Amino acid sequence: MRRPGRALLALGLAVGLPAGALSGCGVLPPLPEPVPSDIVPTAPPVALSPAAGGDALSPDGFDAVERMAVRIRNVGCEELSTGSGFAIDDHTLITNKHVVADSRDLEVSTYDGHDIQVGATATAALADLAVVRTTDPLPSYPELAETDPGPGDPVTVVGYPAGGELTVTEGQVMGSTRDPLNANLGEVLLTDAPVEPGSSGSAALDDKGRVIGVVYAKTADDNSLLVPLSTLQDMLADDTAFTPAKGC
């Protein structure tokens, strides 16, 4: 059964909402073998064209923050779903755990339609995060911001809602709230940047194009929830934070 865009959780959210705790331990998957040498708030999504403007344009007209976004197609054990992700180095993608869950095969493609060969995948117990190592090199990756954003700071989400075209939506950080899915995670960010099913795993960026968080859900009143950058960094630095993903 095809269910495009399963990979975004819609939640009824109130500040301080309790949630069940998850725990676990493990290690990040190893890097693959060496590769051979040979933005108005609450605006609706707008599909980007190759002529879109921006700094650091490549020959095809896309800028660096657009090139780092990938579409993820999860051919699952019982259904097909779509999500988004983004590169943090030449061979590492960040996305959501629920984007890669129960996978028979992960199909990753870049902004220009090129397929990327996937190696190992690992998921976190504490947060809705996953790390995907790729065999093929990734075309671009953004910088990480120095700190988490504050209320009123601008936010831009770059991803593939409904598994369709690359889109950019803009808004601002509304504040923080308790994570309704993982009680042990603590605070997550609440923004009014529009997201849709398939946006899960998208990078949330500041006004300089630096990563400030990872989209993982939306609320019943259509606000978006982000795993903060500081949480992502802490978990990437922790050898026990991720375990190999389980397939079918």
Write the layout of secondary structure elements.
Elements: E1 9-11, E2 46-47, H1 64-67, E3 69-76, E4 80-89, E5 92-95, H2 97-100, E6 103-109, E7 115-116, E8 118-124, E9 130-134, E10 154-159, E11 167-178, E12 187-191, E13 203-205, E14 211-219, E15 224-228, H3 229-236, E16 242-244
Parallel strand pairs: 1-14
Antiparallel strand pairs: 2-11, 3-4, 3-6, 4-5, 5-9, 6-7, 8-9, 8-16, 10-11, 10-13, 11-12, 12-15, 13-14, 14-15
Describe the model:
This protein is mainly β. The chain has one domain (1-28, 41-248): Thrombin, subunit H, CATH 2.40.10. Helices cover 6% and strands 37% of the residues. The protein has helices at residues 64-67, 97-100, 229-236, and strands at 9-11, 46-47, 69-76, 80-89, 92-95, 103-109, 115-116, 118-124, 130-134, 154-159, 167-178, 187-191, 203-205, 211-219, 224-228, 242-244. The strands form two sheets. The chain has an eight-stranded antiparallel sheet with strand order 7-6-3-4-5-9-8-16. The chain has a six-stranded antiparallel β-barrel with strand order 10-11-12-15-14-13. The longest helix has 8 residues, at 229-236.
